[in-house]
Amino acid sequence: MRPFITGHEDLIHDVAYDFYGRHVSTCSSDQHIKVFKLDKETNEWQLSDSWKAHDSSVVSLDWASPEYGRMIASASYDKMVNLWEEEPDAPECSGKRWTKLCTLNDATGPLFSVKFAPGHLGLRVGAIGNDGILRLYEALEPSDPRSWILSTEVKVLPNPPASHLQSDFCLTWCPSRFSTEKIAVCALDQVLIYQRDQAGKMYVAAKLEGHEGLIRSISWAPSIGRWYQLIATGCKDGKVRIFKLSETLQQDSDEMSVDEAPRETTDDSNVTKGPKLKVELLSENADHGGEVWSVCWNLTGTILSSAGDDGNVRLWKASYMNDFKCMSVISATGNN
């Protein structure tokens, strides 16, 4: 593990790699986004560009699928999601290499998390924040991503508390192209899996239960070669949990569907019966000895990394019994 100086003047809230792992972006309370590129010869990260992205703390960012070009989405306490596109002909470190495509400003409170959908779902982006509402946006024309519409609005928390921390909300999309559209949303201490029915409406298909504190991070594993899905969570209660999700024909008449048209409440006319997901807790570990702040799967969905209060990154891999064990501990002083 080799640190490098970012040049940010305040706390860094999020770090994201592009699809190829050759560029990394960071965002900070200094209202700036920075993009670094990896020098293949020296294996050092070099600043490519830095710019003021918002009028408040920038707390989340994500790269779009490479098939839609080099694009970054950012979310901020200023209630806005900004979409940025790289201008490859602009000089590096000029502050002009990344230009703003558009601003999505439907939120009524600070935003905490933003994620692009997998490429096979089209050019879409999801965001959630202080108002407890999940909003999904879609580009009108993927070849010209300057015009977007609010396609779906889901009230995750009917009565959100007056104040939150940025780390109390996060979301992740199901990356499988062989499954219907799904998105997992963490709000405080609960995880809800939303899925589209045949009418295009979102409903709660599953809940990941058992968390005993605020959920800091969630990651949906790529399902290469698997018929089921894996989701990992990192929680304030100090545990890394891995859940197995599989399809079932069971219907749940108690779940509410939220129409794509924005609305404050739901009534009986919006109740739909959709197939539920079967949830099984595969693994639960407290090796970090404190809060778990981040979890992330590798590109094949075979190894999970987690970071916690112990200052270490732990790598988890499944045994032949499908029980995940810590295979390596990475610290600033070396590998164990």
TrEMBL record:
Residues 253-272 are annotated as: Disordered. GO terms for molecular function: structural molecule activity. GO terms for biological process: cellular response to amino acid starvation; mRNA transport; positive regulation of TORC1 signaling; protein transport. It is found in: Endomembrane system; Nucleus, Nuclear pore complex. Keywords: mRNA transport, Nuclear pore complex, Nucleus, Protein transport, Repeat, Translocation, Transport, WD repeat. The keyword Kinase does not apply. It holds the Pfam family WD40. One of its GO terms (cellular component) is Seh1-associated complex. Its main location: membrane. SUPFAM superfamilies: WD40 repeat-like (SSF50978). WD repeats lie at residues 51-85, 208-253, 285-317. It comes from the Eukaryota. It is a peripheral membrane protein. Belongs to the WD repeat SEC13 family. This is LAMI_0F07954g1_1. It comes from Lachancea mirantina.
